[in-house]
């Protein structure tokens, strides 16, 4: 099987979008993990995508804006909310790279219900807040149904640094992802996405207290992340699902 190359723009442009949205004020936190430890967590027909024999766990908080069906426009209120996802990296039998979401915490109930019922994504309704003061962003998240449970909460504080002019191999591997893999109605599908190349900044993690990674079924990340990146955001279009 030949795996598609890592490209800064999608190799599969979306001509007829089924879903539109913006991802703004993102931080990408990543830790290395052995592929065999996460392989059982991926949907059938996919395996961990690796770089130099290593795969990664990502914790990605951000602000979702203007979610809408079809070509849009997106919804300004119901489609705008904070979200945090825990993700893995996958490749399917056709060589398509993607992400697998182990959990998605969102602050708006309707998108949570739609995401769970239509795409079968593991959304959870949470209280979330994003606060920015100059070049420092604080993200906080807690599961609404268990507000006192620290293992279902997350808080990250990040200082935005200099712009990335040339992403490293690892930075391209972690961010240039043009679809997601999900178990959907008894089969695994690849849902493609399309957006402009990421505008990236390197960033410094000032503080992290996270319980989302372990509650997503992953081993605890004992050391600091090996990659911390920030992006002001991109507009995203999703295409129709394709069988993986």
From TrEMBL:
Per its UniProt record, what SUPFAM superfamilies does this chain match? Answer: Acetoacetate decarboxylase-like
Entries under InterPro entries matching the protein:
ADC_dom_sf, DUF2071
- Can you say what this protein is called? Uncharacterized protein YqjF (DUF2071 family)
